[in-house]
Amino acid sequence: MKGFRFTQFFDPGESGTPFERLLKLFKELLLHTSGDVAEALSWLTELDKQYKLTDEKYGIADFIQELRDKGYIQGEAETPAGMTPTGKMDQLIRQSSLEEIFGKLKKGARGGHRTNRSGMGEDQSSDIRPYQFGDNLDQIDFGESIRNAHIHHGPEQFNMEPEDLVVREQDYQTQTSTVLMIDVSHSMILYGEDRITPAKKVAMALAELITTRYPKDTLDVIAFGNDAWPIEIRDLPYLQVGPFHTNTVAGLELAMNLLRRRKNPNRQIFMITDGKPTCIKQSDGQYYKNSFGLDRKILNRTLNLGAQCRRLGIPITTFMIAEDPWLQKFVEDFTEVNHGKAFYTSLKGLGEYIFEDYERNRRRRLR
Questions:
Q1: Which CATH number fits domain 175-362: 3.40.50.410, 3.40.50.720, 3.30.450.30, 3.40.640.10?
Q2: Shortest CA distance to 360 belongs to which of 132, 178, 113, 128?
Q3: What is the pTM of this model?
């Protein structure tokens, strides 16, 4: 019987240069401080004091200088107070989020949304059929067509007739336009739980996934609180929660407008929220707010928009980060009127749920 062979354990997190180890922590701290370089470095210094992250050969000042030299932070000031992240840092954070949430994925060659329907596409299948009037010429398999002409008319006198032509089917690929709505109301940081950071990570990972693996797809990101506004992908790491209520209606209206401009038949909305709608904007510009319960005036406006999205063929997938049965009942009603989907998920599994649903929606048929 063989025994166990023990070897020295090496922590993977301790591998790499001192700069790489500190950079990993610094990226995470930038997310929590919404891009405040000075605050992130201050936290990093405190962690260094407690856990001895550096030594006499490489200190925090060396790390700051290397961040500047490698183009991760910028600014003229000599102190971190005047430093801001660069585009290189933004991309690095998105790539890290992609690896963290969708680590097993590999970048596709050109990207595309596959369905089980044949038609116009980029990837050829093994199925061939006779040429029909109206087929595109680039679909003709000339090798098989010439072979048919030799078989039908003999090799001595080459002659190709319409009945010799065959078409090779191609896997149909759809293009999808997605709007991701992120709740930035105050409840996203209440109750001792940071919910906005995982939401930002998911949005960054989805953005990096789409731009690298499915470049023909589009992704718009919306933050919604008292109002709703579009967020640039490069600004995602630094999105902040405000003293806001939850105006789901404003988020849905903006999402519908963005999808209308895309002019794409495949459209969908992902909504990440942890609370009930508590706010709407009235025709006179005043806000109608109620944080104490499920207000029927606010709920009816929200449900009506869900039904309108269904009539426009826009499914809404809601990711509810809450366990309150009353909130879940609202989400069930909203999902029913929209014919969409709902997931009651923890922060830990949020990314996997969104990716699985995104992949599943790519395979639906065009109407």
A1: 3.40.50.410
A2: 113
A3: 0.71
